[in-house]
Write a structure and sequence with these properties.
This protein has helices at 3-14, 21-28, 32-44, 68-72, 93-102, 152-165, 230-234, 240-259, 268-273; strands at residues 48-52, 56-61, 84-90, 110-116, 135-141, 175-177, 181-184, 187-199, 202-212, 281-285, 290-298, 304-307, 313-316, 320-325. The chain is an alpha+beta fold and 328 residues long. The protein has three domains: 3-61, Arc Repressor Mutant, subunit A (Orthogonal Bundle), CATH 1.10.10; 68-273, Bira Bifunctional Protein, Domain 2 (BirA Bifunctional Protein, domain 2); 281-323, SH3 type barrels, CATH 2.30.30. Strands 3-4-5-9-8-7-6 form a seven-stranded mixed beta sheet, with helices on both faces. The protein is elongated, with a radius of gyration of 21 Å. The termini are far apart. It binds biotin. Biotin is lined by residues 92-94, 116, 119-122, 125, 127, 136-138, 180-181, 191-193, 209-211.
Length: 328
Amino acid sequence: MNDVTSGILASLGRSDIFLSGEELCREFSITRSAVWKHIGLLRDAGCRIEAVTGRGYRLMELSGRPVQAEVGMFLETGRLGKNFVYHQEALSTNQLARALAQEGAPEGTVVSADSQTGGRGRMGRSWISPPGVNLYFSFILRPALPPFRVPQLTLLVAAAIHRALLPHIPGLRPMVKWPNDIFLNGRKVCGVLCEMQSEPDLAHFVVVGIGINVNQSVFSPELRHLATSLSFEAGRSLLRPQLLACVLNQFEPLYQEWLGMDDLSFILPYLEEYSLLNAKEVTVDQPRKSIHGTVRGIAPGGELVLLGEDGRRMLVSSGEAHIRKEPS
Ligand code: BTN
């Protein structure tokens, strides 16, 4: 699928009436048989398009799958998502995006899948990725920056996802849990996994992987108390391609701004406003130790600021935070 296929779908989506083959030929400077080929691609992707002789084409229903043509209808980016790969089933979109990046795929390439059989989470965990309900996607970035700046991307992505979600779940208050989760009503609804390939002074590429529980209604007993979905909390299902596009739309300008800055200062007020951990007593588990303290915010470098029991101020750069006690 390419820009013309997305463009045709966007035109059909904007029109309540039939669009003739001739109109589409003119709009996209293509032949009748090319229009027919693009309509075929859209139907293969699951869109229901009616074709009536003498009248033309009419969009009846989107597939709702996170495919390029449907994401493209909502995309407002310059670069991000313009190169787009979709898999009905993938092992892991992060793994696929990494392989594409190693082959030289351009910055902004997106890999999305309807389901994953080996979805990966942080700290070696798996990410359960059933078909037909959620978003699993990854994109390639090539920031010309030293590797120490890359962990900041996780929080930047979390802020973009948070901004993208807000208009779709009115009345609800999603929260960012440092460094990479979005929570809704106390349960996890989204996770971010950033993976980097670098040399000591320069990042070669970063794969940003995002999993959002969008319309999932059933969770395993182990996850039921920990995870939720947007549809479960909002009481209605959401359009996955639109949400994916909104995340990219929100992220691209933030990323541009961040590239020109030294750190995350410009987005800290936003992150602090929606921080799940602020003022909480937490334990941050790292592979070899656990750190206790009360959260005093996020530092410009993206570290969690903790006040230790001995009054010492600590900057924690990685780990899994658990809330110990609500402040009295
Ligand atoms: C976490 O919270 O542990 C991060 C979860 C990240 C999951 C996403 S789903 C799309 C992409 N592909 C993967 O294998 N993982 C990320």
